[in-house]
Design a protein that fits this description.
The complex is a heterodimer of chains A (311) and B (612). By secondary structure, chain A is an all-alpha fold. Chain A is built from 13 helices and no strands. Chain A has one domain: Orthogonal Bundle (MetI-like fold). Helices cover 72% and strands 0% of the residues of chain A. Chain A is flat and about 70 Å long. Chain B is α+β, with helices and mostly antiparallel strands and 612 residues long. Chain B has a domain of 217 residues: MetI-like fold, CATH 1.10.3720. Chain B has a 4-stranded antiparallel sheet, with no helix packed on it. Chain B has a 4-stranded antiparallel sheet with strand order 5-6-7-8. In chain B, strands 9-10-11-12 form a 4-stranded antiparallel sheet. In chain B, β2 and β3 form a beta hairpin. Classes of the chains: A mainly alpha (311), B alpha+beta (612).
Chain lengths: 311, 612
């Protein structure tokens, strides 16, 4: 048995040699932290016990009970706000990104002058770092000095009074719109590549067969874009559930609380862990989040399995 | 097909596309634009570019004519009769303070330090830079707090020049000795105790308080004895009627002070408020004043009022009003601030020369009748670079930029070395555990960052406690963490690149007698280099954008840009101009990098989308 293993290793020594540093790195800096994180969720690792590391007092399921079932816990109510916001945010951003991205991809897929320039200009916001997006839009949403209110109220007179964007229920929009703004160029890029991968003669054949534009889109473009959509939905799911920079930079300038309607899972978790210094519940929440994410990815896979395997 | 009938629709759609592009780019344009704006303009909701408010802060009489200095460092000599421009010079400075002493004009500014100017031909004789002032305070305070030098003022005593400024939030006064060109810190002033120095003067020599330097600070009026060992004296703001903002000496023992819309006279001999100057209710904020030739002058947004200084305290004293007629300045709105008086020069004729914002001048005779008006020239092209200078001087932005470059470059190199090896192994070899490895690489992408961060933080600290090797707060700690985060993703992308290379490449190399490892480094890496570089740039961009790990795992020596920006934004809540300048600076490097590599990155990222 042992000999067999050794022989197998020696036969495959080249790939193992190539992968060895990566595997070590992943074991030390990914696998070990994840396992410790799962374990930390069962410890009472708070401010005073933080440096006890893994020998902090055992808490059993207390952390989980606190965040899931204790009706008086501020952590729990904060978490549920964050879960609700994150769900709305993720759905809205993913749908918005795909909608705008598809429309833009179809617009740019036509022949017109300076098409390459238009495409490049569209990509601009996607290169702006997300923390800059938060900072920039935090400024744009300002009630008095922000450009959005200046345009909406002072120029277009759409509202009688300047709306407040960064406090109250509007905050959700204030974080959704910048995220769509930053992300749709990426969707457009991927979808455009998908569109350009469709051979022209397919459309010509369809036209000869008497199909109109809509039918051509419905029967040819749509099915061929589905796998790209699948990838983009997964990307949007992971990216937006774990969204942190935009929100943290937009509110309270990186130190404060984004409010009941603007708090996302990552900002809530981060605040709970690195400002309240409660690692135990933080780790428990991250474990739950990881579990939820895996479930979501599994559901995603079940839905799009056919598209991905090319059936 | 009917091309003619479809053309308008096609044009419409093209127009729509460009409209979308334009709207889409507005935030970025606005970011760059506001980074070049004055914060005052942003806060007042001014959107369109216009002439900057550039007030005349300094007016003096010279044998040749009147000398006018503007806050942005323009010096102009005007003729006495009709205010014709005789000579003009541009210093290109911010928030300039002036002092005329003999034939020398001194200009103190936040960007150029102290400049010595020949008052006759307006040429700069010497520049004593900001660095020199800062050096007087040692390396700990190596940067000037330039934003607040706006309150900088100059005073002279014997052969010493006094200059007030702020260093890293701490107000300071430094003495400058022109003969030796040295700056000497004045002990006791470089503390928060004194508060921001707003104005500074020195009463005439013959006073009982001879040799005092008088400063109006946030804390009150500060008297510093210069000649003797007498202790400093502080008239606390709480005991004064209000916090003084401007002050000037009326004569040897009386000071004229103002705060907001009130002015009062302070007696240095009796150490008390002598009298209030009555003003009509709603007269507005006092924006300038002067005391000269037995009269006191107050300027506000409506004009200048003057009364004899013998009538101080007499509410029935005759007050004369001088309403300036400033020349119209194109591009300025006619709001009340554009009629503000920013400096006053009483003339021997009994008249007055009034300076206003936008470099406007108005001369009135003793009866208040406008005699002449003038406009100080200014550079035709003006770009407000000040925010960018401030970014470097106020905030350690250079350090953050350096740290970000070191970390991102380190991650890029390390990740590319590891990922090209791993990607190649996955693409070309079949080995036990290949699928397991492939799946775990994908699975790492689903783990929330904070799940790793909590234990990593504790791991780093415990590791340092156990071994004495510091990891948290070092470049290498952050680089390794990032590499672990980005390598799996890069392996996944590079696998595709390697798989697309023809197998004949290695086969030829193996035939030539290379080992597989040699073949990889000699043949495969060069062939796959475009893909590797594109992936590396993508890793660089992602690392540049990372805030959460950097927030926790860096300290003040290794703060990267996002952490640095977050900190400074917390400290300057309302400095939108600085924030936008910082945002622009942190976007430009990645933009350049992206556009250099655009083709490769786009093709690399979309490769998967097309194939599947």
């Amino acid at each position: 048995m042992f000999k067999k293993l050794l022989r197998s290793i020696s036969r495959n020594r080249v790939p193992y040699f190539f992968l060895l540093p990566t595997i070590i790195g992943m074991l030390v800096l990914q696998a070990a932290p994840i396992l410790q994180g799962l374990y930390l969720g069962f410890l009472r690792s708070r401010k005073d016990k933080l440096l006890d590391y893994l020998s902090a007092p055992w808490a059993g399921l207390d952390n989980y009970r606190e965040i899931l079932f204790n009706p008086n816990s501020p952590i729990r109510s904060g978490l549920w706000d964050a879960v609700r916001n994150t769900a709305c945010y993720t759905v809205a951003v993913t749908i918005g990104t795909l909608a705008v991205g598809t429309a833009a991809a179809l617009l740019v897929n036509r022949e017109f002058r300076f098409r390459a320039a238009a495409r490049t200009l569209m990509l601009f916001p996607w290169i702006v770092p997300t923390y800059v997006v938060g900072l920039l839009w935090g400024f744009l949403w300002q009630r008095e000095v922000g450009l959005i209110n200046i345009v909406l109220v002072d120029w277009l007179h759409l509202f009688a009074v300047k709306p407040t964007w960064l406090i109250g229920p509007n905050t959700l929009w204030a974080i959704i719109i910048p995220t769509i703004w930053r992300q749709w160029p990426f969707s457009m890029l991927m979808l455009l590549a998908g569109l350009q991968g469709i051979p022209k003669d397919v459309y010509e054949a369809a036209e000869i067969d008497g199909a109109n534009k809509w039918q051509a889109f419905r029967r040819i473009t749509w099915p061929l874009l589905k796998p790209v959509w699948a990838i983009l939905i997964l990307h949007g799911l992971i990216f937006n559930v774990y969204s942190f920079n935009i929100v943290i930079m937009m509110f309270g300038n990186g130190a404060g609380y984004p409010g009941k309607h603007g708090d996302l899972l990552m900002t809530d978790l981060f605040r709970n862990s690195f400002q309240m210094w409660d690692f135990g519940t933080g780790a428990a929440m991250s474990s739950l989040l990881m579990l939820a994410m895996m479930t979501l990815v599994f559901i995603w896979y079940r839905i799009f399995r056919d598209q991905l395997t090319g059936k | 097909m009917q091309p003619k009938s479809r053309k308008p629709l096609s044009r419409l759609i093209t127009g729509l596309t460009w409209f979308l592009v334009a709207v889409h780019l507005v935030p970025i344009v606005w970011m760059v634009y506001c980074g070049l704006k004055d914060n005052q303009e942003i806060l007042s909701g001014k959107v369109m570019p216009g002439r900057r408010q550039n007030e005349i802060v300094f007016l003096r009489e010279m044998p040749q004519g009147y000398l006018a200095g503007t806050a942005d460092g323009g010096i102009t000599l005007f003729d006495r009769q009709v205010l014709k421009k005789i000579r003009h010079a541009e210093l290109g400075t911010f928030a300039t303070g002036f002092l005329l002493e003999g034939g020398t004009l001194w200009a103190a500014s936040s960007n150029r330090g102290l400049q010595e100017i020949d008052a006759t031909d307006l040429s700069v004789r010497h520049t004593y830079g900001v660095e020199k002032i800062a050096a007087a305070y040692g390396s700990a305070w190596s940067t000037l707090w330039v934003n607040e030098v706006a309150g900088s003022s100059l005073a002279r005593h014997g052969d010493t020049l006094f200059l007030s400024y702020q260093i890293k939030g701490y107000p300071g006064v430094t003495a400058f000795i022109p003969a030796s060109g040295r700056f000497l810190p004045m002990p006791g002033f470089a503390t928060k105790e004194g508060g921001v120095v707003r104005s500074m003067t020195r009463p005439p020599q013959d006073s009982g308080k001879q040799g005092n330097l008088v400063l109006a600070t946030e804390q009150g009026i500060f008297l510093r004895a210069l000649d003797s060992d007498r202790p400093d004296k502080l008239y606390r703001a709480g005991k004064l009627p209000s916090v003084p903002e401007r002050l000037c000496a009326i004569d040897s023992h009386r000071l004229l002070l103002s705060a907001d819309s009130r002015a009062f006279v302070f007696d240095l001999g009796g150490d008390s408020v002598l009298a209030w100057l009555d003003r009509k209710p709603g007269s507005g904020i006092i924006t300038a004043f002067a005391a000269d030739r037995g009269r006191i002058w107050l300027g506000d947004s409506r004009g200048a009022t003057s009364l004899a200084d013998t009538a101080i305290g007499d509410s029935n004293a005759a007050v004369s009003v001088f309403e300036p007629r400033f020349p119209a300045v194109a591009g300025t709105s006619g709001d009340i601030t554009s009629f503000r008086i920013t400096s006053i020069l009483p003339l021997a004729t009994g008249g007055v020369l009034l300076g206003g914002p936008n470099g406007t001048l108005s001369m009135l005779d003793a009866y208040g009748k406008p005699v002449a008006q003038a406009l100080a020239p200014r550079p035709s092209i003006y770009i407000h670079w000040r925010n960018y200078v401030d970014l470097w001087r106020n905030i350690d932005f250079g350090l953050y930029l350096k740290n970000s470059f070191i970390v991102c470059f380190g991650v890029m190199v390390l990740a590319m070395v590891l990922a090209s090896m791993g990607g190649y192994a996955l693409a070309r070899y079949n080995f036990p555990g290949k699928n397991l490895f492939g799946y775990s690489v994908l699975a790492t992408q689903m783990v929330p960052g904070i799940m790793l961060l909590l234990p990593l933080y504790l791991m780093f600290i415990s590791f340092s406690r156990a071994t004495g090797l510091i990891v948290k707060g070092t470049y290498s700690g952050l680089i390794l963490t990032y590499a672990a985060y980005f390598v799996p993703f890069s392996i996944w992308i590079l696998r595709g690149f390697f798989a697309s290379l023809p197998k004949e490449l290695e086969e030829a190399a193996l035939v030539d007698g290379c080992g597989p490892i040699q073949a990889f480094f000699r043949i495969i890496i060069p062939s796959a280099l475009p893909g590797i570089i594109a992936t590396g740039v993508y890793v660089f961009l992602s690392a540049w954008d990372e805030l959460m790990f950097a927030w926790v795992l860096t300290d003040e020596k290794t703060y990267t840009i996002p952490v640095g920006i977050r900190l400074f934004v917390g400290n300057f809540q309302n400095r939108y101009d600085l924030m936008m300048a910082a945002a622009t600076v942190s976007t430009i490097p990645v933009m350049i990098l992206f556009f250099l590599m655009q083709k490769h990155i786009v093709s690399g990222l979309t490769a998967g989308a097309v194939k599947e």
